[in-house]
Design goal:
By secondary structure, this protein is α/β, with parallel strands linked by helices. Helix content is 28%, strand content 28%.
Length: 334
Amino acid sequence: MLAFQVDDKKLKPSEKPLPKFRHGWALIRVRMAGICNTDVEILRGYHAFRGTPGHEFVGEVADVHGVSGSVKEKWLGWRVVGEINVSCSAYGYRPVCAFCQRGLRTHCSRRTVLGIVAHDGAFAEYLALPLENLHVVPDSVSDELAVFVEPLAAACEILEQVGAKQFQEAAVLGDGKLAQLIALVLRTAVPRVVMYGKHEKKLALARRAGIKTTKVHGDASDLKHVRENYGLLVEATGSSSGFALAQQMTEPRGTLVLKSTFHGAAPIETWPIVVKELSVIGSRCGPFDKAIALLRSGKVDPTALITRTFAMKDAAPAIQFAQKSGVMKVLLKA
């Protein structure tokens, strides 16, 4: 099959054998994949990953291994999306780790992560995942919507971690792809959501979706000029510079949710957290069922974020295009 490998900070095509998969796993033909900022960070050295990246996808079950004929027949041909963390149970480890015993499969101590940690991902014709990771896509949800399930689920995780309905307003710091999805999800639970970003075209996208916006410079000067405070603030700038402003903008005893993942260190002063008694929450993967429900209901429609769709064979130029200023979501289509 055609697959793309990370090699010397570039994405290069290669011919690879079909993925090997275990009992209870599915072979999935990728229909569409999304390029995420994490994929760009992987090219820069994030997690020292050297395989096939890509973790946002919608695909079709092509084969299932090690299950009964009736179970196999049930899955074959279904359109699916997949949770990216593969835990102990899927690999047959016994006993499973302490985190899996507590139901925290996304924090499994022996997990692999699709396209990110020791597991080849979706920038390929096929990938393999356990059946327990898969979610069937309803017929009413198009591929262009379904490819957003994974990042949308990450946005939904905030509602799982924070009692968002207790807040009358919330802020999102950042105007990129994930920040836009977070704002759309927060708006389903919080009456007023404000996005702070430095790109006028991206802020305009948010405004068209009913999100209030404020333009900032995106540098240290914002610490002098931004005076608003919020009880709930989500930092999703995708850069090391956003944390200081996020701390400043979170009101005393407020909740600061961190969503940025990037390669490298961030300069951090911890005294504002102590003095203001902030609750700081790291937030990562989230509930696929809730994301699918939002897409199916029409309460969230992220398709306006799609800038361009490339053929899968053009994944290398596509990821370069995705790094251009002003570009939002770039998709790869089989």
